[in-house]
Amino acid sequence: MTVTVEFFFDISSPWTFLAFNNIQPILAETGATVRWRPFLVGGVFNAVNPRVYEMRADPEQKAMKRSFGWLKEWARLAGQPMNFPSPHHPVKSVNAMRCACALEQDQPALFRFADAAFRAYFGEARNIDDPAELVAIADGVGISGADLLRRAGEQPAKDALRANTDEAIARGAFGSPTLFVGGDHMYFGNDQLPLVRQRIVLLNAGESGIAANGG
User: Fold this and answer.
1) For residue 48, what pLDDT is reported?
2) How far, in Å, CA of 92 to CA of 115, rounded?
3) In a domain? residue 86
4) 91: left (phi over 0), alpha (psi -120 to 50) or beta
5) Please, what is the Cα angle at 37 between 67 and 164, to 5 degrees?
6) Cα distance between residue 206 and residue 200, in whole Å
7) What range defines the domain where residue 140 resides?
8) Does residue 4 lie in a domain region?
9) Considering only CA atoms, which of 162, 120, 164 is closest in space to residue 145?
10) CA distances from 38 to 62, 98, 105 (A)
């Protein structure tokens, strides 16, 4: 049976941008399938990890300044652009993530939109909270931006974003990206992708007995 990776993501997260790209060769190597799951990381922080806001309130904090440096090293290692923090940081991502939820049932279209939006924000420092930018991003990957923005403003997309966020919280998420491998095994962040790969390999081999994340 093919292993499925659920990838809960928010386009405003730089570590998620890296993981979004770095998981691609793992999927290709292992034959796992992926289900992209847009959610609102701010909703997760509000519910279970409010300390993030305390750290952001002091940009001169040593740990925060160090993390930005490490982030750019990780980006260099991955061969990805990282113009961050940009003038729009921290960006409000609710409009972008409602657009993503409007596309969730069309996974290839969601992938194209998310990939372009990540690159617009982190590579080009564009404001992904600006509806005009979101229209341009969608148009650039063959999706009608005006239609997508309309759908994103309707109740089904809003309800889907809330439902995905609530589901992630209920399953133990505390940030973005949160990944579930084979349904039960949760991993967090770009740096845990080697563990994601290991879990996929184990499940492909019919094994699930190593202790990790309560799994």
Assistant:
1) 84
2) 18
3) yes
4) beta
5) 100
6) 10
7) 11-204
8) no
9) 120
10) 31, 8, 11
pLDDT digits (tens, 9 = 90+) for 83-124: 888 888 889 999 999 999 999 999 999 999 999 999 999 999
Total of domains in the chain: 1
Residue 36 sits in a domain whose CATH number is 3.40.30.10
Please, which pLDDT band fits residue 1 given cuts at 50, 70 and 90?
confident
The helix (run of H) or strand (run of E) holding residue 36 is: strand 33-38
Answer for the pair 81, 125: CB distance below 8 angstroms, yes or no.
no
Q: Percent of the chain beyond pLDDT 90?
A: 79
pLDDT, position 54: 56
Q: Where are the alpha helices (DSSP H) in the chain?
A: 14-30, 41-48, 51-56, 62-78, 94-102, 107-122, 131-140, 145-152, 155-170, 193-204
215, part of any domain: no
What is this structure's pTM?
A: 0.89
